[in-house]
Structures are given as C-alpha cells and as structure tokens.
Amino acid sequence: MEQRKPNKFVIAAFAILHVAVVALTWRDISARPADEIRGNKRFWRVFSALNTANAGAYWLIGRRRG
After folding, report:
1. Any bridge partners for residue 37, and if so which?
2. What total of structural domains would you count in the chain?
3. Contact predicate 45/29, CB 8 Å
4. CA distance 43 to 15
5. Do the domain assignments include residue 18?
6. How far is CA 55 from the centre of its chain?
7. Is residue 2 part of a domain?
8. Does residue 47 form part of some domain?
9. Could you list the residue range(s) of the whole structural domain that residue 21 is in?
10. Is 1 helix (H, G, I), strand (E, B) or coil?
11. Per-residue model confidence as pLDDT tens digits over 16-31
C-alpha cells in the first residue's frame, strides 16, 4: 500500500493559522490586566503556544468577563 505524503500547502496553512491565533492571544494577554485573567499570564502564554486548541481554551476559559 502506498503511503501518501502530507500536502505542504495544508501544513503551511495550519502553521500560519496557529501563529496568527497565538499572536492574537499573546497580544490580548499582554494588554489585559492580571486580575482579568484566570491564572498566571506566563502559564497562558506557554500553554497557548503549545497547541492552537489551547489558545482557544484561553479565549473560552482563561479570560474573566467583566
């Protein structure tokens, strides 16, 4: 059975999407006061950089709504 090679365009698109989402997340973390974030700012920066879904978790769970 022949193995399929990953499509480089799809991989590049996901990489660009991840970088954009993480950049927006970090920008929000930097601009937001610490009391409006659940947990430590450093934790959310590292956690969001590991995975795109983790950045989504910040937007859903990590921010306190005033």
Report:
1. 63
2. 1
3. yes
4. 22
5. yes
6. 3
7. no
8. yes
9. 8-62
10. coil
11. 999 999 999 999 999 9
Place of tokens 């947990």: 39
User: How confident is the model over 38-66, as a mean pLDDT?
Assistant: 95
Distance between CA atoms of 37 and 32, rounded to whole angstroms?
A: 7
Q: Is residue 31 part of a domain?
A: yes
* Beta-bridge mates of residue 35: none
Can you give the pTM of this predicted structure?
0.84
Total residue count of the chain as it appears in this document: 66
How many C-beta atoms surround the C-beta of residue 43 within 10 A?
A: 14
Asked whether residue 33 carries a pLDDT value surpassing 90, the answer given is yes
Tokens representing residue 46 in the block? 């590292």
DSSP string, 12-45: HHHHHHHHHHHHHHHHHHHHS-GGGBSS-HHHHH
**Helix (H/G/I), strand (E/B), else coil: 7:** coil
